[in-house]
Design a protein that fits this description.
Helix content of chain A: 55-70%
CATH topology of chain A: MetI-like fold
Family (chain A): Belongs to the binding-protein-dependent transport system permease family.
Main location (chain A): membrane
Number of helices of chain A: 14
Keywords (chain A): Cell membrane, Membrane, Transmembrane, Transmembrane helix, Transport
Number of strands of chain A: 0
Oligomer: heterodimer
CATH class of chain A: Mainly Alpha
CATH superfamily of the largest domain in chain B: P-loop containing nucleotide triphosphate hydrolases
Number of domains of chain B: 2
Distance between the termini of chain A: 47 Å
Largest sheet of chain B: 6 strands, mixed
CATH class of the largest domain in chain B: Alpha Beta
Subcellular location (chain A): Cell membrane
Strand content of chain B: 25-35%
Largest sheet of chain A: none
Order of helices and strands of chain A: HHHHHHHHHHHHHH
Structural class of chain A: mainly alpha
Largest interface: A-B, 20 and 24 residues
Protein name (chain A): Sorbitol/mannitol transport system permease protein
Shape of chain B: globular
C-alpha cells in the first residue's frame, strides 16, 4: 500500500463522520421539503407520516413564496444582520483601538468589556427589553421621565423659561411595537456581540508592526492616514472572520425575536420556520432550504466585498 | 543641502541615561557611519535625528534650522529600517508612492518619480507585486526606493543589511555606496558590522555606551585609534593586545598590534615571541593563525599568506613591525 493510500485510508473515518453529520440533516430537510408532511391533520391523516407517496414537488416552495410573511422575513433577516454587522465591526474597531494603548486599569476594563459575551441570549433579551428599553419601568422610561420633569421645571425659570416652553414633551419609545421591535433586537445583539469583535481586533492590533508605523510617520502620514492605510488593512482578515462568524450566527437569531415581540412586526427566516413547524413540517423545510441559500449568498457577497475594499 | 548638527544632545529613558551630552557635526553630502557594539546607543541616536524619539535636552539642527521640536515628517529625512517596514497590503508601486501621496503630489509627477526610482533600483518588473512576493534584497530595494522618491535632505539607514545573507549584503553594500556617489546626499548609516563601516563611510563615528569614542575617516581610525576600544573595534581580525613586561619595555601599559603586522620568522632572526599554533583558519587568500602560550596575550592572531604550511601544535616564532605598534596607558588611552 502506498503512503498516500494509507494516509487517505486513515483520514476516511473523520471525513465520513463530517459528511454524515452535514449531509444527513441537509438531505432530510430536502426530502421533507418535497413532500406533504404535517404534524396534525384530521381529514388527511396519511400526511402526518413522511412518505414518498405524499410527494408534492415544488408545492411547498410555492406555498412558502406565497406566504404573506416570507419576503418580509427575508428582507428583515438581511436588515437585522446587516445592521448588527455594521455596528459591531465599527464599535469593535473603535473600542479595540481605544484600549490597545496602555493605561491604568486596562486589565479590568478588558474583562468588563468581554463580559456581555457570557450572557445567554434569552437572558440578554429579557434584561434589555424589561430593564433598559421598557418605556415605563426601564432605564429608557426613567430617563425620558426625568428629562420631561426637568423641562417642566425649567419652563417656569426666569429668563430662559420662554425657550424651554417651546420644547415638546418627549415620548418614550415602545420597543415591543411593530415598527420598533427590530431595532430592539439590533441594539441588544450589538451589545452582546461587540465584545467578540473587540476581542478579535484587539489581539490582531497587538501583532501590528510598529516599524511600519514609524516608517509611515516619517513618510508624512497623520493619525488618520495611518489608520486608513495601515491599521484598517491589517484588520482586514480579522474583520472578515468576525463578519463571517457573526453573519452565520445572526441569520439564525431566534430567542431575542421571540422575547421582544413574538415575531410581531419582526420576523426573520428562522422565526418563520419556527412558525411553520408548529404544524407544517414540509413548508418549514422548504423555508429552511431558502435560509441555506440566503446564508450562502450573504457569506459570498460579504467576503467578496471585504476582500475588495480592505485587502488592496 | 543636508548639514546635521547635534548640540549637547542627551537622551534618558526614565532614570537611565542612554546618551550623555553628545556633540556631532555631519557635513552636507557626507556618508557617516555610526558603529559600535549592540546597546551602544547608535540606533537611539539615529532615531533622535529622525524625530522618532524626543531628545531629553540639547538641540538638533538641520541646515542651520532647529528641528528639535519639529515632527519627524517635517524634517525632510527618509529612513530605511532593518525590517524594511514595507506596507504589506500595498503593491511595490503603492509603497513607493506612499510618501508622495501623503505629500499630496499630483499623479503625473508621482509616476515620473516612481519610474525613475524603479529604474535606478532594478524594480521595474516588480512594481505590481506585493512585498510578500519579493526576496529580502528586493524588499530592501523597495524600502530604499520609498526613501529616494522623497528627495530627502538626508537618508537614515538603521542596520539595513542585517537581515540579508552574506552574499547579498556585499552586493547591497556596493549599491548603497554607488547610490551615494550618484546622489551626493547626506547619509547616516547605523551598523554593528565594522566591515560595512570601513568600506562605506567617509566618516566613522565609533560609539560606546552613548559616548562618541572617536570620529574620523576609516583609515584614520585604523592607523591612529584614540583608545584601546576603537583599536579593538576597527579592523578584522581584532587587534592583539599585549600587556605586562613586553609593554613595559616600550613605555606603555598595554601595546596593540594588528594581526597583519605580525609575521612568522625563523628562530633568531628578530623574533619577539614564541608560541604554539592552536587553530589555523585557511581562507585561501589569507591564513589566520591563533598562537597560544604568549605572555600577556593569549591567543595572538597572526595573518599569514594563503599558502603557508602550518599545523596544529607547531612551534612558531613571531616578530612585529615595530612602527605599527600602538601604545596605550592603563586607562586605555593612546600614548604617542
Amino acid at each position: 500500500m502506498s503512503k498516500r493510500k494509507l494516509a487517505r485510508l486513515l483520514q476516511t473515518p473523520a471525513v465520513l463522520l463530517l459528511l454524515v453529520w452535514m449531509l444527513v440533516p441537509l438531505s432530510m430537510t430536502l426530502y421533507f421539503s418535497f413532500i406533504r408532511y404535517v404534524l396534525n391533520n384530521l381529514r388527511r391523516p396519511e400526511w402526518t407520516t413522511p412518505a414518498l407517496s405524499n410527494w408534492r414537488g415544488f408545492g411547498n416552495y410555492e406555498f412558502v413564496l406565497d406566504a404573506k410573511d416570507f419576503w418580509f422575513a427575508v428582507q428583515n433577516s438581511l436588515f437585522i444582520v446587516g445592521s448588527i454587522l455594521f455596528l459591531t465591526v465599527t464599535l469593535g474597531v473603535l473600542i479595540a483601538i481605544l484600549i490597545n494603548r496602555a493605561f491604568p486599569g486596562r486589565g479590568i476594563v478588558r474583562v468588563l468589556l468581554i463580559s456581555p459575551f457570557f450572557v445567554m441570549p434569552a437572558v440578554n433579551a429579557v434584561l434589555w427589553i424589561n430593564m433598559i428599553l421598557d418605556p415605563v419601568l426601564g432605564l429608557q422610561g426613567i430617563a425620558i421621565g426625568g428629562i420631561n420633569d426637568l423641562i417642566t421645571l425649567l419652563k417656569d425659570a426666569p429668563l430662559v423659561g420662554w425657550f424651554f416652553s417651546l420644547w415638546p414633551t418627549l415620548e418614550p419609545i415602545s420597543f415591543r411595537a411593530t415598527q420598533t421591535s427590530a431595532y430592539a433586537v439590533i441594539i441588544m445583539v450589538t451589545w452582546q456581540w461587540t465584545p467578540f469583535a473587540v476581542l478579535i481586533f484587539m489581539t490582531s492590533l497587538q501583532s501590528e508592526d510598529q516599524q511600519q508605523k514609524e516608517a509611515a510617520v516619517l513618510d508624512g502620514a497623520g493619525a488618520w492616514s495611518q489608520f486608513r492605510f495601515l491599521t484598517l488593512p491589517h484588520l482586514g482578515r480579522p474583520i472578515a472572520i468576525v463578519v463571517m462568524i457573526q453573519a452565520i450566527f445572526h441569520l439564525s437569531l431566534y430567542a431575542e425575536i421571540e422575547i421582544v415581540s413574538r415575531g410581531n412586526g419582526n420576523k426573520n427566516l428562522p422565526y418563520l420556520i419556527g412558525e411553520f413547524a408548529n404544524n407544517n413540517i414540509g413548508a418549514a423545510s422548504a423555508t429552511g432550504i431558502f435560509a441555506v441559500i440566503l446564508a450562502n449568498i450573504v457569506a459570498i457577497f460579504l467576503l467578496r466585498m471585504i476582500g475588495k475594499t480592505l485587502m488592496d | 543641502m543636508g548639514r546635521i548638527v547635534l548640540e549637547n544632545v542627551t537622551k534618558k529613558f526614565g532614570d537611565l541615561e542612554v546618551i550623555p551630552p553628545l556633540n556631532l557635526t555631519i557635513e552636507d553630502g557626507e556618508f557617516v557611519v555610526f558603529v559600535g557594539p549592540s546597546g551602544c546607543g547608535k540606533s537611539t541616536l539615529l532615531r533622535l535625528i529622525a524625530g522618532l524619539e524626543e531628545v531629553t535636552s540639547g538641540r538638533i539642527l538641520i541646515d542651520g534650522e532647529d528641528v528639535t521640536n519639529i515632527p519627524p515628517s517635517k524634517r525632510g529625512l527618509a529612513m530605511v529600517f532593518q525590517t524594511y517596514a514595507l506596507y504589506p497590503h500595498m503593491s511595490v508601486r503603492k509603497n513607493i508612492a506612499f510618501p508622495l501621496r501623503m505629500a499630496g503630489m499630483n499623479e503625473a509627477e508621482q509616476n515620473t518619480r516612481i519610474e525613475a526610482a524603479a529604474t535606478a533600483l532594478n524594480l521595474t518588473d516588480y512594481l505590481d507585486r506585493k512585498p510578500g512576493q519579493l526576496s529580502g534584497g528586493q524588499r530592501q530595494r523597495v524600502a530604499i526606493g520609498r526613501a529616494i522618491v522623497r528627495d530627502p535632505t538626508a537618508f537614515l539607514f538603521d542596520e539595513p543589511l542585517s537581515n540579508l545573507d552574506a552574499a547579498l549584503r556585499v552586493g547591497m553594500r556596493l549599491e548603497i555606496s554607488e547610490m551615494h556617489k550618484k546622489l551626493k546626499t547626506t547619509m547616516i548609516y547605523v551598523t554593528h558590522d565594522q566591515v560595512e563601516a570601513m568600506t562605506m563611510a567617509d566618516k566613522i563615528v565609533v560609539l560606546q555606551s552613548g559616548r562618541v569614542e572617536q570620529v574620523g575617516s576609516p583609515l584614520d581610525l585604523y592607523r591612529e585609534p584614540r583608545n584601546a576600544f576603537v583599536a579593538g573595534f576597527i579592523g578584522s581580525p581584532k587587534m592583539n593586545f599585549i600587556d605586562g613586561e613586553k609593554a613595559g619595555t616600550l613605555g606603555a601599559h598595554t601595546i596593540g598590534v594588528r594581526p597583519e603586522h605580525v609575521q612568522i620568522c625563523p628562530k633568531g632572526e628578530g623574533d619577539v615571541w614564541q608560541g604554539k599554533v592552536g587553530v589555523a583558519e585557511h581562507l585561501g587568500s589569507d591564513t589566520f593563525i591563533h598562537v597560544h602560550g604568549i605572555d600577556g596575550c593569549d591567543p595572538m592572531t597572526v595573518r599569514a599568506g594563503g599558502e603557508v604550511k602550518i599545523n596544529h601544535g607547531d612551534t612558531v616564532y613571531l616578530s612585529a613591525q615595530m612602527d605599527q605598534i600602538h601604545k596605550f596607558d592603563s586607562e586605555g588611552h593612546r600614548v604617542s
